[in-house]
Structure formats: C-alpha cells, structure tokens
Amino acid sequence: MQTEALISLALYFILMMAIGYYAYRKSTSNVAEYMLGGRQLHPAVAALSAGASDMSGWMLMGLPGAIYVSGMSSAWIAVGLLIGAYLNYKLVAPRLRAYTEIADDAITIPDFFEKRFKDKSRLLRVISSLVIVVFFTLYTSAGVVAGGKLFEASFGLSYEIGLFLTAGVVVAYTLFGGFLAVSLTDFVQGCIMFVALITVPIVTYMVLGGSDPILAEINSIDPTLLQMTTGVTVLGVISSMAWGLGYFGQPHIIVRFMAIATLKEVRAARYIGMSWMLVTLIGAVATGILGLAYVTSTGAALTDPETIFILLSQVLFHPLVGGFLLAAILAAIMSTISSQLLVSSSSLTEDFYKHFVRRGASQTELVLVGRFSVLAVSLVAIALAFDRSSTILSLVSNAWAGFGAAFGPLILLSLFWRGMTRNAALAGMVTGAATVLIWIYAPFEIGGMRPSDVMYEMVPGFALSLIVTLVVGFATRTPTSELTEDFDTMKEAMRTGVIAPK
C-alpha cells in the first residue's frame, strides 16, 4: 500500500512543481504579477482557487472529524459557511474587484484600505498588515499540522518529517511561481478534492450495504447523532452559523475576487464556486457520519477522529487510488498554505518593505523580498506546528475569527457606505481583532466555562467591530470629494459592468 500510495503522491508533487515552474516563467516579472497575477484570472480558476484555499485540511479532516465525534449537530458550521460564501460572492466580489482597480490599482487588502480612505498616516496599512501576518502565521501552522498528521497516519513517518515535506513543496512553488502558481495549483487541487469527496462517501455507502444497515448502525450508537438540533443550544447554533460571517474578511479568499479578469466574469465565478462548495461540503459531512458507521460495524482502529478520511481511503480502495485520495488531503492542505503564505508575503513586501524600508526598490528587488518573506513565514509556521496539542479545527477557527472580526465589517462598510471614514475603519479593525484575542485568551470564565466554549469568538468580535465602526463613522463623518469620487466611480462600474479607466 505504502509504495503505490507514495507513487501517487510523488506524481502529484511533480505536477505541482511543474505548474510552479510554468508560473515562474509566465508572470513573475513585477510585483503586480507576482502578487495578483496581473488581474487576468479566469472565473473558473478564481472560483476553485478561492474554494480550495478556503477549505484546506479542515474540509477533509477537521469537518469529517467533528461529524464523527458529534454527529449532524456539527453540520451547522457547513450551513453557515454556505450562506456566508454566497453573500461574499454576491456582495463583496464585484465591488471589491472594481474598487481595488479604481483605488489606484490596489494589489493587497492593506493597500486598498489606505487608498480607499486616503490615509496619509499609514496606520491603516500598518495595523491591517500586522493582523494579516499574525493570524495567517497561526492559520498556516494549522495546515502544516494537517500535513504532519497525514504522513504520520498514512506512512508511519514521524510527525515532524511530515511537517517539512508538506511545507517544503508548497514553499517551493509559491516562492518561485507567485500568485499564478498558487491559483493554478489551487484549481487542480480543487478538482482533486471534488472527486475525492464524491468518491469516498459513495464507496463507503456501498460497502456498508445501503441506507438501512447504516441507519441501524448509527441508531445503535446514538439515535440523536442524525439530528441537527439534538444536544445543541441556541448559542451553539449561532456560534456555528457565525463561521459564515468570516468570509467577508478573509484576505486569501477575497484577493481572488480582485484578480478576476473582468467585472462581468464575477457572476460566472459565483456559480462555479458555489456549486463546488455545496457538493464538497455534503461529501465531507457524509464522510464523517458514514465513517462512524464503518468503524463501529467493522471494529477498525481509529485513534484520531480527524483521520477518518485517511482510514477510509486506505482500507476501501486499491493502493493507487488510495494514494490519489491522500493527494486530495494534501491538495486541500497545500492550497490553503500557499494562499496564506502569498498574502502574508504580499503584506510584508508591499505594505512594509516598499513603504518603510526601501521606497525606491526596483520591481526585481520587491519580487525577491516577496520570496524571502514566503520562506520566513513558513519557518515560523513550522515552528508553531511542532506543538500538536491543538486540533486542526481549533487552530483554523481562531484565525478565521480573527480575520472575520477585524476585516469583515470594514470590508463590507467600505464597499457600501460612501461616508465611512478612516477613523471608523481603524477603530473597528482594532476592536474586532482585540475582542477575538481577549475572548480566546481571557483570564475569566462565564458560567464556569471559557468564553470561547460558551460562544464562538467570531460573534462578539464581529458585532463589536461593526458597532464601533458605525458609531465612530457617524461621529467623524466628513467625507472628502476625493473619497466620494472613487466611490461613485465604483457604483457606476456596478451599473455598467465596465471599470472605466482613471
């Protein structure tokens, strides 16, 4: 099994490196190409790239593991994500695509904030860049942890070797190929994930003999496992659904919207992206519940619920197919790591180095700094991943909440509120990030429980950020004609579907 599976993984690694080399030759001559692909992304590539970088190892390991342990009550997260992703495509994608080009061709989220609000103090750029680097380093470490678990569970390699193998390939193609390499590899990885999350639950269903034996097996364990409402509180449902709020503030996802070739192609990207997401989420949920039935009925050994997909791929499929399915996990992991590394690198290069270290740096120098930044962030993430005490889901949830609360209200209001001010943006962003960190690491308890166990930190973080942004915005509302001119140009682009040149 191991030999055939390793062959499949080796072929997958070669494909990823080949794509990285192609992108290196195609689009890394300047920072705009390295960081945003020259805004020439096909809608299908943008959609699957956004989806693959969004879901990560959480899709094939974290969510099936949560369903395996808690049953269908954990599926509320998937419902919230579907709603949030749709609203992100509908509300944020077209306006952000237009506005970032209109706002002096902003190529990073901090760059957009500064240009949107004409912030000469550069505080918005600096603080948003710090939020990105801090939370993405944590987020990237979650992906590296998933890679370590994969190689440990599948091949008996040490967890530490798995960390370096996973990170090594990702760093190589991201470092050299930039945004185009990340987007094209994400597209391929999204296709692999799609096939895997259809194949595994269908084959498991057939092996178990269909609906009646499966239902009987689950009911023998606990009949409430198939009910979404059993064992969950109103706060629990709100906390799970609140994952959807995070979409509005995820830089590695919304940057794909900025890179779509034309404004009119955003709708096509939405149709493709939402179809992909619906099928894969159903597959992930089905993998968890069917995996529980399989392990119970066969007595198969499973020490870590987050590896249920790995177990099914090993015992139910030919080794070569099993290797392909393991590649799907790597695809999910690597697509997210690469996107996060590139956004972190973009922020360090464009938002720190270019503006505070070397204002006159050449395009070649900036691309080189971007590559070194990819390497630096990856090394820190690997170091954090050596502490394997946290689950993949908990690491992802913390970082997801941090971005959602800090950037979510800011992105939405900056795109829909003409009179929003720079002070409001700054106050809301700081409030959101600080609330999430306090909620996670608070030295107090609520009813004898940690605050994050009572309610997902996204809820108070997003709510307080939104309230503070609105209050400060109305108190300081003195929009200049320069601000409203860009906003009106963006609105006109929404009406015509064409971004007029400045």
UniProtKB/TrEMBL annotation:
What name appears for this protein in its UniProt entry? Sodium/proline symporter
One GO term (biological process): proline transport
Q: Which family does it belong to?
A: Belongs to the sodium:solute symporter (SSF) (TC 2.A.21) family.
Q: What PROSITE patterns is this protein classified in? A: NA_SOLUT_SYMP_1 (PS00456), NA_SOLUT_SYMP_3 (PS50283)
What stretches pass through the bilayer?
A: 6-24, 67-87, 123-141, 161-184, 191-208, 228-248, 269-295, 315-343, 364-386, 392-417, 424-442, 454-475
What does the record give under GO molecular function?
L-proline transmembrane transporter activity; proline:sodium symporter activity; sodium ion binding
Please give the superkingdom of this protein's source: Bacteria
Q: How does it sit in the membrane?
A: Multi-pass membrane protein
Indicate where this protein resides in the cell. Cell inner membrane; Cell membrane
Give the protein's biological function.
Catalyzes the sodium-dependent uptake of extracellular L-proline.
Q: Which reaction does it catalyse?
A: L-proline(in) + Na(+)(in) = L-proline(out) + Na(+)(out)
Q: Which GO terms describe its cellular component?
A: plasma membrane
Q: Which UniProt keywords apply?
A: Amino-acid transport, Cell inner membrane, Cell membrane, Ion transport, Membrane, Sodium, Sodium transport, Symport, Transmembrane, Transmembrane helix, Transport
